[in-house]
Amino acid sequence: MGNPRSKQPKKIALVGSTGGGTATLGHTDVTGLVEMIRHHLGCIHAGADSSTITSTGNDEKALPPHPLVTLGTVLFVSLDSGAGFDSATGAEEATLLFLADGGREMIVRDRLDRINDTMRDFEKGIARDFQNNELHGIIGVSCKPSLVSSTLQAAAEMGAPLTGTGGSSLSEAASAFEGLRLIGNAGGSVGTTPETKAVSFASAFASEWGLGYDPAAAGAAMRKRTQTASQTNPSSTATATPTSTTADRPPTWKSVLNSCLPGFWGVMLLKRILRTTPVGDWLPEGDRRALEYAMEFHVLPMVCAVVMATSRRKVESVQMAALLAAAACRGSILGGLLSGWCAAILEERLLYASILRWKLPATFTNLLTGGLVGVVTATLMAPLSPYLGAATGKFRNLTAVYLWGSAGSSNDNNDIHESLRLVFSSLLGCLFCYGSKVGWYHSIFLPLILIEMELGDPSMLGALDVLALVLVCAGVCLGLLVTGNGEDKGLARRGMTTNLLYGDFVEAYYPHAEKYPLVNAAGYAASALSSAILTTDCRSSAYLPFPAAVWLADDREAFLAASLIAFFIPFLGTVVNHTLFVRKRKSE
C-alpha cells in the first residue's frame, strides 16, 4: 500500500521503450526524455499536498535542495530507425540504455531480439532492488511486461505504485501481476510529449505519497542549466547528457501525422461549435466565414508542416519557414507534411552554406533560412498541393459511398449495393477490432482517420473508432465491474471511466478477451453490427467524452443506436461468460 504522508526519500525505476505510437515529438531522444523525467521528479517536495507551490522572492521557482524523489534506475529500448515497435520483427537495430543508481551507465547496440535478451538479464537486478526496498515506484513507458516480468512481480509484492503511458502494456501489467497498483492518469500515449509524460509521472507519485510538486521549477531549472552549460562550455549539449541514444533518423511521417492529433481535435471542435451553437452568432458574418475557411483549408496543413519541420530541426527559423510554406498547401495535410519536410532540409543546408561558404552576416542568414526557404518551398508546393488534396478527397468520397452510402431506391442494383455495403462495413468493424490488438492502430488506422479529418470535420473511421474500440472496451469493463473480483474491478473501473470520459485506454479489456473466447467473440460481434448501421451522417471522433462524440454526429439517433449495440453486446457477453465459465472454473 502507498504511504500517504511519507517524507522519506524515494527512488523510482523507469522501464520501457519508444513504443508504437510515441516515437515522435522528442521520444527518439531517450536521454532527453530521461533528463526531463529526472528534473520533474526532482521538483517533488515535502509540501502539504500535490498542489503546493514554492518559489523564491523574485518569481523564480526554486528546486528542493535535497530531492525527495529521484530516478534510481533506467532500462529503456529504442529503435535506431526512429520508427515505432508496432511492426517490429526483431531484426531491427536497436539501442538499450541502462542507468543504475550511483551513476553507472551502459549503452548496448544490437539487433532488437538480442537487445530483448539483454534487457531480461538487466531487469533481474532491478527486481532485487525492489525486494531490498531500494526502489519504491515504477514508471512504465510502453514497456513489454514479459521483458520485465521479474521487476513487475517484485514491485507488485512490495506494493510499489506504477504509473506510465502505453495502454496495452499498462493494462497487461495490471492484469497479470496481482498487487501492482496503477496511479495517476496512467493510460494511452497518443499525442503525448516528453514534457507531458514527465509532469504526469511526477504528479502521480506526489499525489500517491502526499508530497508537493512544482512543475514550473523543472522548466526554470532546465533553462538555467542550459544557460550555465552554454556559458561555461559553448560546445556542451543542452542537458549535459549523452546523446548516443538519439535515433539515427527522425520520426516517420506516420508518427509525425499522429502527433498532430491535438490540432485536428481542436479544429474539429471549434468548427462544430461555430456551426451549431450561438458562439458563431457572436462574430460578424464575414469574420465567421473567414474563420471557418481558414480552419477548413489552412490551419491543419500549417500544423502538420510545423510539427514535421520541428521533428527534424528544433529551431525557430524552421518553424517560420514551415508556416510560410504551408500557406500554399490549401486543404492538403499531405502537402503540409511535405512542405515541412522540405523546409527543414532546405533550412539546414542553406544555413551552413550561408555561413561557411558564402560568409553572409548572421542577420541576413536568418532572413534567408526563415524567410526565403519558406517562399521557395511555398512556390514549389503551390502546383503540387491541389493534386495531393484531390487524392485524399477521393479517399474520403470512396469510403463514404461504398461503405456507408445509402442505396436510395429499391431496384436490384441498389439492393445488391446495399447488401455489399452491409457486408464490407461489418468486416471493417471487425478489422478495426482485430487491428487494434495487433498494432495496426497507430500505423494504419489513426493516419487514415486524420486524413479523413483533413478539412477539420469528424470522420466515419473516427466513428468506427468509438464503436469498435472505445465502447466495446467500456462494455466489457462494465461487465467485469458487475461480475469480477476485486483485482478485475480495479482495472475495469479505470478502463470504463477512461473510455467513456476520455475516449482512450481501449486496451484495458484485452487481457480478459484473450483469456475468454466468448468475450472476444462478443467484441467482434458488437464491432460488426454497430458499424453496419452507420450512415454518412454519423461522423464522429474518439478521444472525447461519449456525449460529445454523440453531439458531433449529424444523425445522432443512428449513432446512438449503433453505440448501444457496441456497448451492450460486450457487456452481456462478459456477464454470460462469467456465468458459464468463470464461476464454474472457480467452483472447480
Rg, Cα atoms, Å: 25 Å
Q: How big a fraction of the residues is strand?
A: 5-15%
State the shape. Answer: globular
How many domains would you count in the coordinates?
Answer: 3
Helix-strand pattern: EHEEEEHEHEHEHEHHHHHHHHHHHHHHHH
What's the count of strands?
9
How many distinct helices? Answer: 21
Major sheet, described briefly? 7 strands, mixed
What's the overall average pLDDT, rounded? 83
Whole-Å distance between the termini? 31 Å
| Strands side by side in the biggest sheet | 5-4-3-1-6-7-8
Structural class: alpha/beta
Helix content bin: 55-70%
Poorly predicted segments:
22-26, 49-61, 229-246
Show the helix and strand layout.
Layout: E1 10-17, H1 30-41, E2 44-45, E3 69-79, E4 93-99, E5 105-111, H2 112-131, E6 137-141, H3 149-157, E7 161-165, H4 167-176, E8 181-182, H5 194-208, E9 212-213, H6 215-232, H7 253-259, H8 261-276, H9 285-312, H10 316-326, H11 333-357, H12 362-381, H13 385-403, H14 412-437, H15 440-452, H16 460-483, H17 486-502, H18 510-515, H19 517-532, H20 546-552, H21 556-587
Parallel strand pairs: 1-3, 1-6, 6-7, 7-8
Antiparallel strand pairs: 2-9, 3-4, 4-5
